[in-house]
Design a protein that fits this description.
The chain is an alpha+beta fold. 26% of the residues lie in helices and 33% in strands. A twelve-stranded mixed sheet has the order 1-2-3-4-5-12-6-11-10-9-8-7, sandwiched between helices. The longest helix has 15 residues.
């Protein structure tokens, strides 16, 4: 695979090095915007993806090789306009990014997180029958009120474009917990649709009762029943309790990342 800059022709799988053409994270991301630069081979690849308000860099593969490819991209005069628009970057954890590269992008370390996915229908869990589908428009205010307490750091928005569903557990007053799902691209040889879960949160007074697992299972079951090629989610790397729950439900960690954002960023991009 040659090194490329500019709007790349064809669908993403066709321009990726062969070793990355079935990578589920990259396939799912391709619906967010065109690839405007790419450096890589079967060992490591770095993509620059054009979002509506920024360019996002994504690296996959061996950490040292990703850093090498990133340096090539940042140092290429032909990619200067692409690098100037970079507003976010996610690389494999363990990648030691040179100061000069960070200076060129204007980014600073932000967070570490894992990307997980499953294409297996999860086992039934206690409380799943109490999870109900929500109307993302009619119930939007109630969902937002729950998120404000249960997951104030999320950027998930029930009325946003691409939202495919929200689920919740109703309590005596308001919702005890919620989770949402948005559509992303999938496997082009299948339905080419995947679901990504976000906005999972349970109010403090209802935690440690299994509601997080019940909400997750309900959403995963709905996605796979609807024909999604897989269901994915992300969680912060230090959340070991969440990782254990997700693995028990059939999720597999397919990417371990460190993200970099603008110096004053308080939330990951939506």
């Amino acid at each position: 695979m040659g090194d490329t800059t500019g709007h790349l022709p064809g669908d993403l799988p066709g321009v990726l090095p062969p070793g990355w053409r079935s990578d589920r994270l990259l396939l799912g991301d391709r619906g967010h915007g065109p690839v405007v630069a790419l450096r890589g081979d079967d060992r490591a690849v770095v993509l620059a993806l054009a979002r509506p308000s920024r360019v996002t860099l994504v690296g996959r593969g061996a950490a040292d090789a990703v850093v090498h490819r990133l340096g090539e991209l940042v140092g290429d005069p032909a990619a200067r306009s692409v690098v100037a628009d970079v507003g976010w970057m996610s690389l494999p954890r363990g990648a030691h990014v040179p100061r000069g590269v960070l200076a060129a992008t204007g980014l600073v370390p932000f967070s570490t997180w894992d990307w997980m996915a499953t294409d297996t229908v999860p086992p039934e869990v206690p409380g799943e029958d109490d999870v109900v589908p929500l109307d993302r428009i009619a119930d939007a205010a109630a969902i937002r009120a729950c998120l404000a307490v249960a997951n104030p750091g999320t950027t998930a928005e029930p009325a946003a474009d691409g939202e495919v569903g929200w689920w919740g557990v109703r309590g005596p007053v308001g919702l005890l917990g919620v989770v949402g799902a948005a559509t992303r691209a999938g496997d082009p040889a299948r339905l080419d649709v995947s679901w990504h879960l976000h906005g999972l949160g349970v109010v403090p007074t209802a935690r440690r009762q299994g509601w997080g697992a019940a909400l997750t299972v309900a959403a995963v079951r709905a996605g796979l029943t609807a024909g999604a090629d897989w269901v994915s989610l992300g969680h912060y790397a230090d959340n070991d309790a969440a990782r254990r729950v997700y693995r028990r439900l059939g999720f597999v960690t397919e990417g371990e990342f460190a993200s970099y954002g603008p110096p004053r960023a308080t939330h990951p991009p939506g």
